[in-house]
Design goal:
The chain is α/β, with parallel strands linked by helices and 458 residues long. Helix content is 42%, strand content 14%. The strands form three sheets. It has a seven-stranded mixed beta sheet, with helices on both faces. It has a four-stranded mixed beta sheet with strand order 1-2-3-14. Strand 12 and strand 13 form a beta hairpin. Helix 16 packs parallel to helix 19.
Length: 458
Amino acid sequence: MPDPLLSNSQIVSAYREKTLGSEKLAFEAGEVLPSGIAHDSRYLKPYALYIDNASGPHKWDVDGNRYVDYFGGHGALLLGHSHPDVMKAAADAMAAGTHFGANHPREVEWARQVIKMLPSAEKVRFTSSGTEATLMALRLARAYTGKTKFVRFRTHFHGWHDHMTAGYSNHFDGTPTVGVIEGIANNVILADPQDISDVNSILGTNDDIAAVICEPTGASFGMVPMSAEFCTELREITEKHGVLLVFDEVVTGFRCSPGGAQQAYGVTPDITTLAKILAGGLPGGAVAGRLDILEYLDFERSAEKKREKVQHPGTFNANPVSAAAGISALKIIDSTDACETANQSASWLRMRFNEILASENVPWAAYGTFSGVHLFLNADGQKIDHENFDAVSVPYQTLKGKRPEIVTKLRLAMAVNGVDFNNSPGAQCSSTHTQADLDFTADAFREAIGMLRQDGEL
């Protein structure tokens, strides 16, 4: 059934006219895929773009339209699309064989590079995804501590396995989401993401907590910000109570700085989970951390200590093609200013967006940390100081509470003007975005604001 909020929209009409090939493919996809998609965040009304190829900060859809890309492979592409060195490394590895069913030299080099760059990494175990990495991190924490529960923060995302579904976008009371059994939900304790005293209280009144896990820059790469000071206090509190600290750096790892958020903040967790940039844009994840914790995966050490080993198979763990791409990407990040370049681009966009919003008298605000840009769409109609907007002072419910039709129309309007925003809505910058790309994006944003106004949304 057509959405009445979109059916009479000039923005939607312009989008449809520009993307006929995507519309055709979306119809075909609906016949074979639930909602016609393979990832929840790719859901977009009336349909999402279908991309044919990409290079650097740009991608082209099946209709030949070019977009400045801020989805960035869901955050995996700090170096932009199709980086020549990464592509060559992956192609050379693929030519030698995609799967050996055996150990191979690249997995050793990949692990050494992670350990070189990441402060918390004494040992590394590769997985196939970030979801698998957070699942393994919790299993290791429980095995190491002998405790059953863990604490996570409302709105923080740690993959889609059963322990992580409640409290991300709904079920903030901790009740199980559909398909998850109550016994699992009962061993997860949700904390307020903006109140360190809440964590202190939880740890002080419960002696069965194995770990606290968080996105160190806050939910959705800083949409609900978490400061360096908060992380420092979290480290102190967990150490005081003998609880492990897990940083989920699936997004932030090798992005905030070459050593991730933990290097940028000067806070070292016990365990770190990784994916995205880790594998250079290919599938791959990892758990890294203290030697005494990772040894629960070790055959010999478990036998010596007469304890049961944590089992961990996985057909595509440390796949040689992903390893090759990951090694190449990490070495580039380690030896260049890629992180800082992306961070500076995002800082410029945030500043320019706020200037545009102020000049257009739109009570929104752009904010974010490192290479991320978020838009506060101000559903409650607060008074906005565009130059001094402080997202830390805004409740997480307000930061996350956005009118879906506004988000949708903004993304469609940006696409009409040649920019692919992510679904926050906002941007993750790469090291390949040039000043010309940023200027183009700012002009597109101003045009999109005008289109929203014509559609009666502002």
